[in-house]
Design a protein that fits this description.
mainly beta, single chain
């Protein structure tokens, strides 16, 4: 059974870059079947999908965050990572990594069925 675990700093200063890593065990990230995703939850905004990365190098990002994020995969370490630049207090949230199946719309692929999640990591943006 695949397991995911987030790691990174719990406190980030405004204008800095938030960097999180998700370590995957019980399964390889080198696959065409899944997208490796980041999602966050805050009391004010609820659950928000951030984006995904795949071992092939393909990525997909939320339009509202696209200008500030980068998601990468490291197949040698079986990890994937999130970088969120120029953070503000509005980026304070619990951040989750998750595995999603790769769905096909008929014209493009997209993540569906977020079946496996990490436990989440609280990140606070404050000076």
């Amino acid at each position: 059974q695949v397991q995911l675990q987030e790691s990174g700093p719990g406190l980030v200063k405004p204008s800095q870059t938030l960097s999180l890593t998700c370590t995957v065990s019980g399964g390889s990230i080198t696959t065409d079947l899944f997208y490796w995703s980041w999602i966050r939850h805050s009391p004010g905004k609820g659950l928000e999908w951030i984006g995904y990365g795949a071992s092939s190098g393909s990525t997909g990002y939320s339009p509202s965050l696209k200008s500030r994020i980068n998601i990468s995969t490291d197949t040698s370490k079986n990890q994937f990572a999130l970088q969120l630049r120029s953070v503000t207090p509005e980026d304070t949230a619990v951040y989750y990594c998750a595995r999603a199946r790769r769905g096909w719309s008929g014209t493009y692929y997209y993540p569906i069925d977020f079946g496996s999640w990490g436990q989440g990591i609280q990140v606070t943006v404050s000076s």
